[in-house]
Amino acid sequence: MSKTFYRNKGSKDNIVISLAGVHGVGKTTVFNLLKKILKENNKFKFFPERYVKKPPFPFGSSDKQIGFRSELHFLQQLIRRNQNIMNFDNNYNGRIIILDRTPLCVLIYSKSLNLKEKDFTLILDTYSSIKWKENYIINLTAKPDVILKRIVQRGSLDKIRREWNEDDNNYLLKILTYYKQFLSTKTNVFPIDTNALTPKEVVDKIKIIITDLSDYSFGKIEQSSTTQMNLDKF
What we know:
The chain is α/β, with parallel strands linked by helices. 45% of the residues lie in helices and 11% in strands.
């Protein structure tokens, strides 16, 4: 995976950082924890993955038509978010913008759902027509069995897990493969292996990356001695 450390120290431009990772890896948990820690700090701005809490179609459906509709809906949400980011970017500078999910995920999941070629092409063409605001990607990774345990322990209802195929190991492996494939074409990707880390420890690693990329310093970051994964926290 290609990585390029470009330091924006002293720059007035905003920095846009996406948190990426397959469902269940703990990405949104980490996003919300980072947001909670920095909620009073106006240096940071956070944008969620979508604005509709209950999507009209189940994500990850094995039904190709439903899968297409869900990914098209999600792409619309990402486009809306991107416009909000651009509006913010036009009004503020020197900020660090954190995104829950990279826009690239809509292509990864669309590929994983084996959509009809014409449906995937429509999503790809729409995606490619947007000038996405994103400078860096922090990709959270974990072993498939660890991810599946987190999915079960995070409290999702069995019905939702079935509708969204969240507990399907083959589907998970396919998505992980496409994440690796798509992210290999991107520069400025920073992977974090979360297998033996708590959410707080992942946040600390993200803080170090942010410090490397910007003129912002978090000061001394505590290094926890915890090495055993606490799955209940993901």
